[in-house]
Specification:
This protein has one domain: NADP-dependent oxidoreductase domain (TIM Barrel, Alpha-Beta Barrel). It contains 11 helices and 12 strands. The protein has an 8-stranded parallel β-barrel with strand order 3-4-5-8-9-10-11-12, surrounded by 7 helices. Strands 1-2 form a two-stranded antiparallel sheet. α1 links the parallel β3 and β4. α1 crosses α2. The longest helix is centred in the last third of the chain and has 18 residues. Keywords: Oxidoreductase. GO terms for molecular function: oxidoreductase activity. It comes from Pseudorhodoplanes sinuspersici.
């Protein structure tokens, strides 16, 4: 698979990365062995970037990845870890903690669960409103010097925070939601990271399956599935959003590709500084998603896709109101 460099200072990674969150219950029950098999299939296909968070399944996802990569040459893959989100034993979300000592504590536990000596990219999952970003990045920089972290990333940060962080230590990439129906970063954030030489790892490229071409308006969710609470999946919104998917399907079929491949290829076509993260948790979905790497979109193709799914056409915010309030990127 094609390799891209994450920003001016980041590592070289595959042009498509694997987001592993869904393998740890964030979208309902998941199969551990299928998750491991999917990670192996991704690595065999040339994917090198595995993305996780220490709070996905309260450590379950890191242990899953650790099991999957055991015995695999360390220089053939990269692991990106988000930290800071705190949860109680019932799985409820509490707050964010990015104090320097907490950063180092979270890192120690992640290394243990992953079974690794270092983490390739370490990043706060959200901005802790009680801790200056300089303190958080400074603590990670200490861990870079100590050899436990290779690169520092950010997640869902706004332009002011990004600039402040970059003054403390080089930032490899910003991880942020970016898709055909979530294009807010194009206004200020994307120009800022490009000015600073920071790459983008784009998550939610299929909007949690909404624009995958497989979701139906009468689909049911199970306990623990994020989509139960997501505004874009709610009654009154879902049908309008799926109408956009139907329009995209017409364009995709004319191109001879699937809806998911069109959506992923569109994100990838926005620049070589953007790496889409696909959240496949089964091998069949992974194979479909990776097919996007073989798709070349012409200017005419991109224009047709954007006519089918115009900017700001989606109905509903990308997170529930309370979670939106935690996003520095939305301020």
């Amino acid at each position: 698979m094609k390799q891209l460099q994450l920003g001016k200072t980041g590592p070289k990674v595959s042009a498509i990365g694997l987001g592993c969150m869904g393998m740890s219950g964030m979208y309902g029950p998941s199969d551990r062995q299928e998750g491991i098999a999917t990670i192996h299939a991704a690595l065999d296909a040339g994917v090198t970037l595995l993305d996780t968070g220490d709070f996905y399944g309260m450590g379950h996802n890191e242990m899953l990845i650790g099991e999957a990569v055991k015995g695999i040459a360390r220089d053939t893959f990269q692991v990106s870890v988000k930290f800071g989100a705190m949860r109680d034993p019932g799985g409820n979300w509490l707050r964010y903690d990015a104090r320097p000592n907490a950063v180092k504590n979270f890192l120690a536990y992640s290394l243990q669960r992953l079974g690794l000596d270092y983490i390739d990219i370490y990043r706060p999952s959200r901005l802790d409103p009680d801790v200056p970003i300089e303190d958080t990045i400074g603590a990670i920089a200490d861990m870079v010097k100590a050899g436990y972290v290779r690169h520092i990333g950010l997640s869902e940060m706004g332009t002011k925070t990004i600039r402040r962080a970059a003054k403390v230590h080089p930032i490899s990439d910003l991880q942020i939601e970016y898709s055909l129906i979530s294009r807010g970063i194009e206004d200020e954030i994307l120009p800022t990271v490009r000015e600073l030489g920071i790459g983008v790892t784009a998550y939610g490229v299929l909007s949690r399956g909404l624009i995958s071409g497989h979701w139906r308006s009468n689909a049911t969710t199970t306990a623990g599935d994020f989509r139960t609470y997501s505004p874009r999946f709610q009654a009154g919104n879902i049908d309008a959003n799926l109408a956009l998917v139907d329009a995209l399907r017409t364009v995709a079929e004319a191109k001879g590709i699937t809806v998911a491949q069109a959506a992923i290829a569109w994100v990838a076509a926005q620049g070589d500084d953007i790496v889409p993260l696909v959240g496949a948790r089964k091998r069949d979905r992974l194979n479909e998603a990776l097919g996007a790497a073989e798709v070349t979109l012409s200017k005419q193709d991109i224009a047709a896709i954007e006519r089918a799914v115009p900017k700001n056409a989606a109905v509903g915010s990308r997170y529930p109101q309370m979670a939106m309030a935690d996003l520095d990127s939305e301020k």
